[in-house]
Amino acid sequence: MTAEVDRRSVPLTGVWATDLTTHSDPRGDFVEWYRASRLTGDTGVAFAVAQANASISARGVIRGVHYFADDDGQAKYVTCAHGEVVDVAVDLRLGSPTFGRWTANRLSQREPGAVYLPRGIGHAFVALTERAVMQYLCDREYVPGLELTIHPLDPELGLPWPTDLPRIISDRDSAAPTLREAAEAGLLPRYAG
Fold this sequence. Notes:
The protein has a single domain (16-184), classed as Jelly Rolls, CATH 2.60.120.10. 9% of the residues lie in helices and 39% in strands. It contains three helices and 13 strands; from the N terminus they run βββαββββββββββαα. Strand 2 (22-25) and strand 3 form a beta hairpin. The protein starts with 15 loop residues before the first strand and ends in a 9-residue tail after the last helix.
């Protein structure tokens, strides 16, 4: 897995990315994409899974930047089960030393990897292949109406979206505020240190 997709990509406190091992034989491939003891051993995080999700996206689909503004949100552990994506984590925590910065990882079925995103970190990705399947483990159940979004094309964030793809963005994400607008409206989480 490529740790940095762009020179502006920075390590974010609490975000953890790892390469995964593919076991192949004539039947196909097998990937263990989550092991609680590994995440806890590497990060100290005890991650209890409360919900599992999958999203299927066409080439050029950008999802996010999604987040929760309070402690009732979700921490996530994500991987790309099929296809390839650029997965982006954005530090949205007011007071964080890396506020407004991001880190990006290529996740794919060919070179599998996974990313852990703590609360307060925004999540987004773009599908690079005709079909990309993302799998999410979440530590809390989703509560409609609590998830917020930052505009994925916010020029101040400068997220690493490829320019050679069509950009397909939901109406909700297209209407989202910029990071600056969300901060001014009091819609961002606080950094707990």
